[in-house]
Design goal:
Elements lengths: L5 E10 L2 E11 L4 E6 L5 H9 L9 E3 L2 E2 L5 H7 L1 E4 L11 H10 L11 H7 L1 H5 L10 H13 L5 E5 L7 H9 L1 H5 L4 E5 L3 H7 L2 E6 L2 E7 L5 H9 L7
Parallel strand pairs: 3-8, 3-9, 6-7, 7-8
Antiparallel strand pairs: 1-2, 1-4, 4-5, 9-10
Helix pairs in contact: 3-6
The structure holds adenosine-5'-triphosphate and magnesium ion.
């Protein structure tokens, strides 16, 4: 793999007295898609939140271009070129699609090379152009997910963190969203994909990390790791993935 764009080094994270992550070493290069899989409570969302500055971590535990950025506030991380599509989307209810997107444009990072514009976003998800004047709450779950992804892209991320973007969506719209990922990576944006569907995670990513109880239990090239290895890493025993 070429030099890491974003990396974590012995990253630990806590919720009060509870330790959720135990020394996570993770890395992703420009243009890569890396899947994060693991059972409920394994620590996937916590890793994304720690990278995004939503949880307190030591500076050297998160590095961007080899520079320590751990513990920077979320708005600083956006300015640094990291964006998150959070679990549950968190759109601005009562606002139209276009106004949700404009918020991101107003708060965009300075990674001009990424070059996301409304025009390019509408080419990626034509439905957003059609529905731009519509309040977000009247959209379907899949359409709302497109707005959430669009909002993240318009902040010009070099690293896009996606937390379970397929959750609860119809297979057709999941396919539509996942088909958009290669165009997102085209300009060098890296995608970290938290995904419960192990098959989808493997087929959509270059590499994967499996997490188990706050540790990385397996990492490798997605095409190379066997179902048996994933089953063991996922459950911590000799189980197969269904
Ligand atoms: N706000 C919180 N306060 C206290 N503990 C938390 C909090 N959020 C998560 N945890 C705990 O941290 C651990 C990791 O949770 P996390 O949400 O990162 O898991 P996950 O892999 O994203 O799971 P899921 O697949 O259910 O989304 C779990 O034990 C969870 O109960
Ligand atoms: Mg989660």
């Amino acid at each position: 793999m070429s030099a890491a764009l974003l990396s974590t080094h012995g990253l630990v994270a806590h919720y009060g007295d509870f330790q959720a992550l135990y020394g996570i070493d993770f890395e992703i290069a420009a243009g890569e898609v890396v899947a994060l899989i693991g059972a409920n409570g394994a620590g996937k969302s916590t890793l994304l939140k720690s990278i995004m500055g939503l949880l307190s971590v030591a500076p050297g535990m998160v590095q961007l271009d080899g520079r320590p950025v751990g513990g920077a506030k979320p708005h600083r991380m956006v300015a640094n070129g990291v964006a998150i599509v959070p679990e549950g989307r968190r759109l601005f209810v009562g606002m139209s699609v276009i106004d949700n997107l404009r918020v991101a444009i107003d708060h965009a990072g300075k990674s001009a090379a990424v070059g996301w514009t409304l025009e390019r976003l509408f080419a990626l998800f034509p439905l957003l152009k059609e529905k731009q004047a519509v309040p977000v709450e009247s959209l379907s779950g899949g359409q709302q997910q497109m707005v959430a992804i669009g909002r993240a892209l318009l902040s010009q991320p070099r690293v896009l963190l996606c937390d379970e973007i397929s959750l609860g969506l119809a297979p057709k719209v999941v396919k539509e969203i996942y088909q958009a990922l290669p165009s997102i990576c085209e300009t060098g944006t890296a995608i970290v994909l938290v995904e419960q569907d192990v098959g989808l995670a493997r087929s959509s990513s270059n590499r994967l990390y499996c997490m188990l109880e706050g540790h990385v239990s397996l990492t490798g090239r997605s095409a190379d790791v066997s179902r048996e290895a994933i089953g063991e890493a996922y459950f911590g025993g000799a189980h197969a993935v269904a």
